[in-house]
Amino acid sequence: METQRQKKISSLIQKEVANLISADLRRGGSKNLVISVTQARVSPDLSLCKIYLSIFPSKVSSENLSLIQSNAPRIKHDLSGVLKNHLRKVPELAFFLDDSLDYIDSVEDSIQNPDNPIRG
Q1: Is pTM beyond 0.85 here?
Q2: Which of 30, 84, 88, 107 has its CA 20 to 30 A from that of 101?
Q3: 46-67 tens-digit pLDDT
Q4: Whole-angstrom Cα distance, residue 80 to residue 90?
Q5: Is 91 exposed, middle or buried (0-12, 13-18, 19+ CB in 10 A)?
Q6: What are the beta bridge partners of residue 55?
Q7: Pick from 88, 59, 87, 71: which is nearest to 20 by CA?
Q8: Other C-beta atoms within 10 Å of 23: how many?
Q9: SS (H, E, C) the chain
Q10: 16 CB contacts (<8 Å, ≥6 apart)?
């Protein structure tokens, strides 16, 4: 069960990481790439934050996720500058791929076409 503090920190980090990533995408000129921060979860001791990303198109999701994971220290540094008035110490950031939308698409596809099995 998440505490109220964990929920507040999670939503704050989710919002600010989404802003940082979208700003990087605009600077980089990636017009056909959409990255959404779907969820952020902070550990009970506030030392780790797991951030789940939805990346479209999903064909390039793994390479973009690895790029974001390699830039995690820079993202944490930028995040600490934004959150310096809210948090004393920014938790370590761990990025994961949220493929729930792909799974939903495969379920809908299998319902419409019963001959196709669910991919997952």
Answers
A1: no
A2: 30
A3: 999 999 999 888 788 889 899 9
A4: 6
A5: buried
A6: 35
A7: 71
A8: 11
A9: CCCHHHHHHHHHHHHHHHHHHHHHHHHHCCCCCEEEEEEEEECCCCCEEEEEEEEECHHHHHHHHHHHHHCHHHHHHHHHHHCCCCCCCCCEEEEEECCHHHHHHHHHHHHHCCCCCCCC
A10: 79, 82, 83
Residue whose entry in the numeric block shows the structure tokens 């979860």:
41
CA dist 107 to 35, 97, 103, 104, 116, Å?
Answer: 22, 19, 6, 5, 10
Can you give the residue ranges of every domain in the chain?
Answer: 4-112
pLDDT in tens, 3-27: 999 999 999 999 999 999 998 888 8
Give whole-number Cα distances, 86 to 44, 45, 57, in Å.
Answer: 17, 16, 34
Q: Which CATH number describes the domain made up of 4-112?
A: 3.30.300.20
Q: 57 preceded by cis ω (within 30°)?
A: yes
